[in-house]
Each structure stands twice: as C-alpha cells, then as structure tokens.
Amino acid sequence: MLPDLIAPSILSADFARLGEEVDNVLAAGADIVHFDVMDNHYVPNLTIGPMVCEALRKHGVTAPIDAHLMVKPVDDLIRMFIDAGATYITFHPEASEHIDRSLQLIKDGGCQAGLVFNPATPLHYLDHVMDRIDMILLMSVNPGFGGQKFIPGTLDKLREARQRIDASGKAIRLEIDGGVKVDNIREIAAAGADTFVAGSAIFNTEDYRTTIDAMREQINLARSV
Ligand SMILES: O=C(CO)[C@H](O)[C@H](O)COP(=O)(O)O
C-alpha cells in the first residue's frame, strides 16, 4: 500500500483567508490540498476554479493540489487546471463524454489522473482504465456540500476498490471523501483507503494539528493489526 495521506478539503476553509488557511493546515501536518470544484450544474453548488488554484501556487503553496472536478463537461476545466498548477485531477466518469480521452488529457498535461465514484456509481467504470489512472476517489456522501454524514455502505465499496488495485499491481491511490472524522477514520483505513479527505472535521476545529495528529494515530492503529 502507498503511504497514507491526509487531504484537508478547503471547501470548509475560511475563503476570505484562503492562503493563510492552506498554509496553516499544511504546517499542521496535512499532506495534500483537496480542492473541490463545483459548477452548479453537475452538482447543486458553486465553488472555486482554476484562478484560485493558480493563486495558491503564486502564494507559495508547493504541496500537491488535488483538484476534484464536480463539473460537466470536464475537458475544458481539465486543461485549465493543468495550466493552474494542479497535481492530481480527478473527474466523474458519467460527466465525461469520452473517459479515456479525458484521462489522456490529464496525463499529457503532466498531472496524475483519477476517476471519482459517487455513492451509487458502480466501479465497473474502472474495467478498462486501471493502467491509465493514478487515483480512485470514492465519495462517501453525495457530492455538493461539506459537513454531510458518511454513508456506511461505502466501506464495502472501499474493500472492492482495494481488491481491484491490489490485483492490478499498480501504485494507484484510493481516496475517500465525505464525512471522514477522527472517530470513523480507523475503520475507513482498515477498509483500504490510503488518502483521506476531511473538510469540516479539520477546518471546524480550533487546532488543526491536534485533529490531524488524532486522525493519523487512528490510521496507524488500523495499520498495526
Ligand atoms: O467533495 C466534497 C463534497 O462534495 C467535500 O470534499 C467533502 O464533502 C468534504 O467535506 P466533509 O469532510 O465536511 O464531509
């Protein structure tokens, strides 16, 4: 398995102080920045775009930026996020006209590519792309909003995705997003996730370091059995 990564979702950060918030959460031990892009079309909310990603790079953020595109169509925004300095770019397969072409666009742009699965989206979209992806992102809430409750059925889906990754022999990250908290992250890690998106659980706490340390401790407990 790849090393575990904590990926705070800036959806729950204070947007009026975004650069400072990202600096603080990285200084508190976060590994990568999860960047939620919503278009008020594919999902019922509107957030931030490539200009903000570029602004974070200009601000001095060197950590990987994990751009999760909740948009339809996807290819124009893929191009824009490549230029804006994203590290990972993930999209929802049902939002792309040509999944293979969208993945290739990301790879040609020098970024890491991934597919995102809503709670009811079947994993069979992976069948013919395992050799072309770097990340699988499983949504454990319906996309659009932070602060929702983790959908327990996602644990079985995580186990299935982990089996597919292990069988492929490829270094593919398995990311989980939605309702991840200190008190459920151990079970999520045990089910096979190695990349943990957490928005409200981190940004709604007073001390980011305490929360991130507590999450890492729970993940390490899952790894020690
Ligand atoms: O993609 C998202 C919603 O579509 C968010 O990343 C996700 O919900 C994280 O928020 P929280 O940890 O508060 O559930």
Automatic annotation (TrEMBL):
A divalent metal cation binds at residues 34, 36, 68, 177. The keyword Isomerase applies. The keyword Metal-binding applies. PROSITE patterns: RIBUL_P_3_EPIMER_1, RIBUL_P_3_EPIMER_2. It is an enzyme of class 5 (isomerase). It catalyses: D-ribulose 5-phosphate = D-xylulose 5-phosphate. Catalyzes the reversible epimerization of D-ribulose 5-phosphate to D-xylulose 5-phosphate. This is Ribulose-phosphate 3-epimerase. It comes from Marinobacter halodurans. The lineage of its organism: Bacteria, Pseudomonadati, Pseudomonadota, Gammaproteobacteria, Pseudomonadales.
